[in-house]
Amino acid sequence: MAEQVYWDDVNVGDEIPTLQKNCSTQQLVVWAGASGDFYQIHYDQAFAKETGLDTIIVHGALKNAFLGQLLHDWVAPRGAVRKFGCTYRGMDYPNQDIVCKGVVMKKYIDGSNHLVDLEIWTENPSGQKTSPGTGTVTLPARG
Amino acid sequence: MAESVVSDDMRAHIGVEGSESISEVTSTGCRLFAHAVGHTDPIFYDREAARSRGFRDVVAPPGFLGSAVFRPGERIDTDRLMARSPYRRILNGGTTFEYFEPICAGDVVRSRSKVTEYQERQGSIGPMLITFRETSYVREDGTLVAKMYGNLINY
After folding, report:
1. Partner residue opposite B92 with nearest CB, options A36, A60, A83
2. Which chain B positions have a beta carbon within 8 Å of A86's beta carbon?
3. What is the pLDDT of residues B3-42, one digit of tens each?
């Protein structure tokens, strides 16, 4: 993990370090077990095709969890993820890159908390934002 | 706009909290979730690492609110939602997690959901019913630890 990021050093418009993912079908099965989402379109190709899909697709909630990791890895060890989420706008497929990105939209202080709001999203190999969302994190302040 | 598919029964359901679900946050559950995502921070895997960073125990990774305690014969919530919708197919439209306190292994979390809004839209995939839900997660000592906001799309 990278060095601690401090609230003071963050600027609106900053891009945070990207997180690259590429799900094997096995990872989707591990996720199914971990999350309890056993909908067959995520691991049973025949079932997925019957519902009209080209092939199995990556769970939306897994992409959301990737965005949670994106934020956690940026603020750790001393910051915390307060709020994050996304809408499931487009499908992603196994064995394709999913790149998680974030941009700082706002920095502010609420009481003793130093907060940052971000736009976050996953991007498919065509550069489309398949899971656009937002996040709020706390960061430590210098001094 | 076609006639609404939101029945009086569904409308009366808005804001009414459903039955309570219980989830257990275990170190095994945290590790499995962290592994599935690909987390590398040891606080999601190792008790000592978590304690050295000020947490009570292995930390639940972002998006993990414990494993539901199932009992044979109990139907899951989505089944009930499916039964209420006139459309057969369902998509998860999106999810947001809001944290008020860290969630750690050993926590038992009680949750209740309520429908906050219905929206009906004509999408590229035909008529859609979007159900917005909010779920509150309360630790055994009564502390509200997290909320989840989600929407399900029936079409």
Report:
1. A60
2. 94-96
3. 788 888 888 889 999 889 999 999 999 999 999 999 999 9
Q: Please report where in the chains the tokens 């499908």 appear, as a residue.
A: A91
The interface predicted TM-score (ipTM) is 0.96
On the question of pLDDT at B133 being above 70, the answer is: yes
User: Which residues in B67-99 are b (16+ Cβ under 10 Å) and which e?
Assistant: beeeeeeeeeeeeebbebbeeeebbbbbbbbbb
Chain B residues close to A133, C-beta within 8 Å: 94, 96
pLDDT digits (tens, 9 = 90+) for A76-125: 999 999 999 999 999 999 999 999 999 999 999 999 999 999 999 999 99
Beta bridge partners of B147: B98, B136
Question: Would you say A42 and A57 are in contact if contact means Cβ atoms under 8 Å apart?
Answer: yes
Residue A70 lies in a domain: yes
Give the gap in angstroms from C-alpha A11 to the nearest C-alpha of chain B: 23
Q: Which fold has domain B1-22+74-155?
A: Thiol Ester Dehydrase; Chain A (3.10.129)
For residue A114, the surrounding DSSP H or E stretch is strand A113-123
Q: What pLDDT is attached to residue B76?
A: 56
Q: What's the domain range around A74?
A: 7-21+60-138
Residue intervals in chain B for CATH 3.10.129.10? 1-22+74-155
Stretch A24-44: mean pLDDT, rounded?
95
Domain count, chain A: 1
In a domain, A75, yes or no: yes
In a domain, A52, yes or no: no
* Element housing B150 (H / E): strand B144-154
Q: What Å distances lie between residue B109 and A31, A32, B9, B133, B147, CA to CA?
A: 21, 21, 29, 18, 11
- The CATH number that applies at residue A14 is 3.10.129.10
